[in-house]
């Protein structure tokens, strides 16, 4: 029988992951978010409690998936009651945070008799809803094997990178390169428009040369059409590139 799942952080990614798992037959035991209105709305949709306290999510669940914003938020939830009576529970952490925080979480979870796994996501909202995320995992092999059946419902591709912190390192570099590609493509299209080039033709040339990228495939047409609906904010891009910068500075 599938394990009961709790969610901490039900923004656009977390909420769609919860919906996906519910459709796959998992019981969503509880949801929690600092945005109580969002948690309550999702709880009504999924037919589960909107927990008022973090420890309630842990009490009601066997596997707790966290999808929070940054290092500060991760430390707040793990210092704020999430590990209360956590023995035997599995915590799967999907946020893009520094490798050191994932290592810290694994240590705290271990002291509480629980397991922790980082499952870094290199995809967006649509993939979260469809169960086609690209997942990079880090942690103890036992935690990965326990999480694998569940993660296979969330992702179409999954890689076990190594011990705690290693998947977060890879994710930081993925986002660094993605952000560089995004900026470069935006500059190229903007300059092309300014000098009067046909941007559809320009994108086609880019796609068949060294200018090609995944960002061109996913965002190029929207850039051309000045469609700027935000699925990944500049603030998050800056945060993630900052993690990569911090990694580089450790070598100095």
Topology:
Layout: E1 5-8, H1 12-23, E2 28-32, H2 36-46, H3 54-60, E3 63-66, H4 71-79, E4 90-93, H5 99-111, E5 115-121, H6 125-130, E6 133-139, H7 141-154, E7 155-162, H8 166-194, H9 199-207, H10 214-224, H11 234-249
Parallel strand pairs: 1-2, 1-3, 3-4, 4-5, 6-7
Antiparallel strand pairs: 5-6
Helix pairs in contact: 8-10, 8-11, 9-10
Characterise the protein shown here.
- It is a single chain.
- This protein has 252 residues and is an alpha/beta fold.
- It folds into 2 domains: 5-163, Rossmann fold, CATH 3.40.50; 169-249, N-(1-d-carboxylethyl)-l-norvaline Dehydrogenase, domain 2.
- It contains 11 helices and 7 strands.
- The protein has helices at 12-23, 36-46, 54-60, 71-79, 99-111, 125-130, 141-154, 166-194, 199-207, 214-224, 234-249; strands at residues 5-8, 28-32, 63-66, 90-93, 115-121, 133-139, 155-162.
- A 7-stranded mixed sheet has the order 2-1-3-4-5-6-7, with helices on both faces.
- Helix 5 links the parallel strand 4 (90-93) and strand 5 (115-121).
- Helix 8 crosses helix 11 (234-249).
- The longest helix is centred in the C-terminal third of the chain and has 29 residues, at 166-194.
- The chain is globular.
- The mean pLDDT is 95.
């Amino acid at each position: 029988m599938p394990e009961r799942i709790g969610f901490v952080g039900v923004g656009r990614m977390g909420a769609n992951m919860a919906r996906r798992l519910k459709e796959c037959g998992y019981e969503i035991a509880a949801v929690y978010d600092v945005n109580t209105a969002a948690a309550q709305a999702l709880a009504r949709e999924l037919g589960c409690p909107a927990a008022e306290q973090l420890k309630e999510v842990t009490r009601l669940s066997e596997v707790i998936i966290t999808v929070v914003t940054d290092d500060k938020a991760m430390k707040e939830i793990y210092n704020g009651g999430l590990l209360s009576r956590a023995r035997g529970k599995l915590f799967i952490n999907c946020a893009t945070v520094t490798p050191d925080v994932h290592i810290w979480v694994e240590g705290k979870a271990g002291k509480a008799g629980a397991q922790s796994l980082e499952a870094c996501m290199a995809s967006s909202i649509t993939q979260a809803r469809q169960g086609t995320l690209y997942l990079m995992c880090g942690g103890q092999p036992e935690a990965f094997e326990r999480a694998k059946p569940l993660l296979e419902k969330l992702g179409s591709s999954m890689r076990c990178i190594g011990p705690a912190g290693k998947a977060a390192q890879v994710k930081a570099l993925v986002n660094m390169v993605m952000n560089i590609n995004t900026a470069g493509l935006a500059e190229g299209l903007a300059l092309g428009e300014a000098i009067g080039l046909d941007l559809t033709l320009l994108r086609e040339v880019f796609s068949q040369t060294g200018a090609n990228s995944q960002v061109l495939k996913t965002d190029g047409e929207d850039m051309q059409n000045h469609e700027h609906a935000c699925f990944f904010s500049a603030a998050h891009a800056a945060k993630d590139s900052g993690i990569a910068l911090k990694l580089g500075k450790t070598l100095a």
